Amino acid sequence: MSSKIKLGILGGGGDSLIGVLHRVASSMYDRYEITGGVFNADLQESINFAEEIGIPTNRIYKDLDSLIAEEAKLPEEERMQVVSILTPNFLHFPMAKQLLENGFNVICEKPMTTTYEEAKILDETLKKSQTIFAVTYTYTGYPMVRQMREMIHKGEIGKVQKVDVQYYQGWINPIIHDSEKRANTWRLDPEKSGISCCVGDIGTHAFDMIEYVTGMEVKEILADLNFLYKDNVMDIDGTVLLRFSEFVKGVLRSSQIATGEENNFTVKIYGEKAGLKWEQENPNYLYLLQDGEPMKVLKPGHSYNSELSLNGTKLPPGHPEGIFDSMGNIYKGVAKAIKKEDYHPAEFPTLKDGKRGMNFIEKAIESHQKGNVWVKIDQ
């Protein structure tokens, strides 16, 4: 019998980009085999999709209840061991909770839930289930992001004194100016997306990235959000000031109306000795900035990089790696945890990261609604 981890998938059928990303990532290190799931709310659509991508249809289920009930009937060694949740936001919490309560390991898309309260409930559920839970803050899987993290943690740039993170997209610009389109987009529907669009979607990526690379926790935030139209209740742009301590501060800027931008995620961390800069659209370059020195460019695959960075590098120097590789590194880390192998704690984001992300989203909305005031992030 195959020693690969048996993976089930919820959502991600049809032409879903996130579905392709997760399927490719799971196959990257030959650690998983997709055994079934619920790709679509319509059973026949799920079956058709499974046939299209070459998965046996005997473990394609009509819904999550059926999946759990039928998998429980199988011998333990044949059951799905981990389930990836790729559905719209409002389904993340109920699905994740039900899976944890039934002993499954979980890989969940972000935002992990639609409320901070739900995140706290999941945290308690996970403690009881003692399984593995990963949240796919995808960009933490890039080798040069991991190199940035290790350099900061080892003190190579000195004490961090300034953080500047920008995540700009323009995809919602053609939608927001059309009243009919903005009324029929699930990202702008609080019942499906939660209380935030931009901060909840990409702002939470930026927030997690800041804490991931610096090892510091944000203590307080002040948010100023933009909605553009009075009938749109969901933020589509925002600037958030950050306080880590009295003398360490930063700014997080996220926008989905940055006209013409594609996926401009830029992370800049400045320490007392040096600065580091990374850009998602050019992910193989990590820029090292030092007073009185020419800018240095670090690239993946070289022996000067950290073990954590090299562990996530699949190709020789000079061969570009991208978002599929980044997600693949997260799946690889989860596989190690499920198999009880040694792994670095930075190899995949955990439920704690998802929980802090939800706290950040709610506090950003609260700060804005109270008139752009400082509010504390739970520690």
From TrEMBL:
It comes from the Bacteria. GO terms for molecular function: nucleotide binding. Residues 22-137 form the Gfo/Idh/MocA-like oxidoreductase N-terminal domain. Gene3D superfamilies: Dihydrodipicolinate Reductase, domain 2, NAD(P)-binding Rossmann-like Domain. InterPro entries: Gfo/Idh/MocA-like_OxRdtase_N, Gfo/Idh/MocA_oxidoreduct, GFO_IDH_MocA-like_dom, NAD(P)-bd_dom_sf. Residues 145-276 form the GFO/IDH/MocA-like oxidoreductase domain. This is Oxidoreductase. It comes from Salinimicrobium marinum. The lineage of its organism: Bacteria, Pseudomonadati, Bacteroidota, Flavobacteriia, Flavobacteriales.
